[in-house]
């Protein structure tokens, strides 16, 4: 049984996707600080309190300990609840949160526990802006 999130503040990533006749819900918990073990690591904030989205580090709000982005994201685990589009099996799985490029799109690929078919959870793509006439 996977641990359900109580709040979006404790999550690094969350999505709910329809995949053919199936669906998948994915969430990734933030890591606790390796130094003080009190707070959840997150990207730094500016003076107005907004998150610096493009930052290359993660910072602990309690002790100011920082970790490079690649090191922080290497240990993240994705929790997935899914309904397989092939066999309609409902399952839960934990996998490392590492996306691979499949057909040029960053994708988290899991396998159905029952029928062993691939279930691809793609990164949400921005739609191109419509041109004005």
Give descriptors for this structure:
2 domains, mainly beta, 133 residues, 1 helix, 39% strand, 4-stranded antiparallel beta sheet, 5% helix
Provide a concise account of the structure shown.
The protein is mainly β and 133 residues long. 5% of the residues lie in helices and 39% in strands.
Describe the protein's architecture and organization:
The protein has 133 residues and is mainly beta. The protein folds into 2 domains: 32-75, no CATH class; 76-126, no CATH class. It is built from 1 helix and 9 strands. It has one helix at residues 69-74, and strands at 11-19, 22-29, 57-59, 66-68, 77-83, 90-96, 100-102, 105-111, 118-122. The strands form 3 sheets. A 4-stranded antiparallel β-sheet has the order 1-2-5-6, with no helix packed on it. Strand 8 and strand 9 form a beta hairpin. The N and C termini lie far apart (53 Å). The model has no long low-confidence stretch (mean pLDDT 87).
Major sheet details: 4 strands, antiparallel
Class by helix and strand content?
mainly beta
Number of helical stretches of at least 4 residues: 1
Run of helices and strands: EEEEHEEEEE
Strand content: 35-45%
Terminal residue distance: 53 Å
Mean pLDDT across the residues is 87
Low-confidence stretches: none
Rg of Cα set: 17 Å
Approximately how much helix is present in the residues? under 10%
Shape: globular
Topology, number of strands: 9
Domain count: the total is 2
Spatial ordering of strands, largest sheet: 1-2-5-6
